[in-house]
Design goal:
The protein is of the alpha+beta class and 345 residues long. The protein is built from eleven helices and twelve strands. The strands form two sheets. Strands 1, 2, 6, 7, 8, 9, 10, 11 and 12 form a nine-stranded mixed β-sheet that branches. β10 and β11 form a beta hairpin. α5 runs parallel beside α7 and α8 crosses α9.
């Protein structure tokens, strides 16, 4: 298995990244934890050093008062340093977040695994609800819980919609700029009070999915023209070029010839990735669906498709970036900006 994913288990269909070991469906959160080989704990351990640079005697060892190391207890693997206020989160504690929903039949465990040598673990549950846009364009909702065993990184709970036709992991950022995730710094204990705070901050799964459905329906009804969608792509991936195009259009009389010239000039100056997004408008899976063809929903998914499936060759690294890295932030911006264009249309 590729180096970024350490262990992983999945139920149902093979995940879009094609990685992991298949397990039986309908597992409880704790059963999924074990199947994904995440039933281990971490502990803070003291750091020692010699009080003299030239010494190697045990009697000369001194303990740091300010720093510790975080260690995986099952194999004594050092996950990294941590400060005095760092409170470790155990994998089992984090997976209790799913229990209320799986017990009620509102969710089913989908995948779980360990990334980057145990520094980050995750669990993903499918929400037993979704919606379909015109043209049989199905979107399913998922709840993602991520634990970071790394100083300076927060634990996180977020809703992650997935477009079935192309397995795009979509942004939950909404038109009102609602935060798509609840982040938990390692200065608090992952307990019942924190779980309640997360539930309140995120809202009920069905409510958030209903809000997202409204946004998706708006985007699927609003059409873009060529210059608008080119500006959208440039604004996200080549902002300097987007500014140049905006100045040209503002100073022109906006005749058909000038609009075509602006479009061609911008396309000629597109770098590789933005040009892939432009091509994906017509080439992505589901491009010809009624909800997608020529709409801002299609534009959002063109960018998401390239980010998730075409950007880079390391598939497990792509999965990490799709959820947690800079590319996840890019998808958030793409959704918010598409809504701005759609509402202005």
């Amino acid at each position: 298995m590729a180096h970024n994913i350490e262990t992983m288990a999945y139920a149902g269909e093979v995940p879009w990244h094609g990685l992991g070991v298949k397990v039986d469906g309908n597992l409880t959160p704790q059963e999924m934890l074990k199947q994904a080989q995440l039933d281990w704990t971490v502990s803070k351990r003291s750091i020692f050093t010699y009080n003299n640079a030239d010494s190697d005697k045990a009697d000369d060892l001194i303990m740091s008062d300010n720093y510790s190391v975080l260690v995986r207890d099952s194999d004594n693997q050092i996950l990294g340093p941590c400060g005095p206020r760092f409170i470790p989160t155990q994998n089992q504690e984090a997976f209790t977040f799913f229990k209320k929903f799986t017990d009620a039949g509102d969710m089913n465990m989908d995948t779980a695994g360990s990334l980057r040598g145990g520094k980050q673990i995750w669990g993903l549950a499918e929400i037993n609800d979704g919606f379909t846009l015109p043209g049989d364009d199905r979107v399913e909702g998922y709840l993602l819980v991520s634990v970071s065993h790394e100083w300076g990184k927060s634990n996180e709970i977020r809703f992650t919609p997935v477009r079935v036709v192309c397995n795009n992991t979509l942004s939950m950022a909404l038109a009102d700029k609602t935060q798509p995730a609840f982040k938990m710094p390692h200065t608090k204990v992952f307990d019942a009070d924190l779980i309640t705070s997360a539930e309140q901050a995120l809202g009920l799964a069905g409510t958030r999915l209903d809000e997202y459905k409204e946004t998706a329906e708006l985007l699927s009804k609003k059409k873009y023209n060529d210059n608008q969608v080119i500006s959208y792509i440039a604004d996200l991936l080549q902002p300097k070029l987007a500014l140049e195009q905006k100045i040209i259009l503002e100073n022109s009389k906006s005749t058909d010839a000038e609009l075509i010239e602006s479009k061609l000039k911008t396309l000629e100056e597109f770098q590789r990735t933005p040009y892939k997004v432009y091509e994906a408008l017509e080439q992505q899976p589901g491009a010809n669906l009624k909800s997608s063809k020529g709409t801002w929903w299609g534009a959002v998914n063109a960018l998401t498709y390239v980010v998730d499936h075409k950007w880079g060759h390391d598939r497990d690294a792509a999965m990490h970036n799709a959820w947690f890295g800079a590319r996840a932030s890019l998808k958030n911006r793409a959704m918010v900006k598409a809504v701005e264009y759609a509402e202005a249309a």
